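Troubleshooting: if your tokenizer reports a length mismatch, compare your output against this known-good record of 218 residues.
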Amino acid sequence: MTEAAHGAGAGAPLPASAPGAHAHRDDEAAKIGMWLFLFTEILLFGGLFILYAAYRAKYAPDFHESGRHLNHVIGIANTVILLTSSLAMAVSVTAVQKDDRRLAKGALVAVLLLGALFLVNKGFEWTGEFRKGIYPNSPELATRPKGEQIFFGLYFTMTGLHGLHVIAGLVVLGIMLRLVTDGRIRKGSHVLLENGGLYWHLVDVIWIFLLPLFYLAA
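Known-good structure output:
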């Protein structure tokens, strides 16, 4: 009777306070999943880069002329902003690993502010193009050579898609900031922050490719 009772109790749920009661966390699987996701993002933008290269080879003079009309100052400034934000992101991850929650939160706030500044600059830049009548399917753009129409079509598509990724990254890192503040991301339990950092670094790397393709194309 005692053995039967013991056998029945062996399969019973563990108390919440018992060791092993919490759900198993597979950090390696989470990292692999993140890398697979990033690979799909690389395929997405890689396809667009190949498309750009094909059209640039066909309409090289038009692409050269179109690149002269973009705001190079904003383009370069946004590059510096994103590179600085990547540094702050790395500082935040390192701070968590060293159990310095205050520095981790401060660095994350810096990333969020820099990301927002990037979007503000991009908004000013797009507004400037709109005021010149340059936007998808605009009458002004329709009067320009086909190569220039394709250039600006790719410009708005690729930088717009990148901007959406920046917004998504800011939302994710905002959540990470809350988790760090609550202590759910801490030393020994920071894979979520690392994955968020990987995504943000990818966003920065994509911009590094967009800069020469568009702003330095002239």
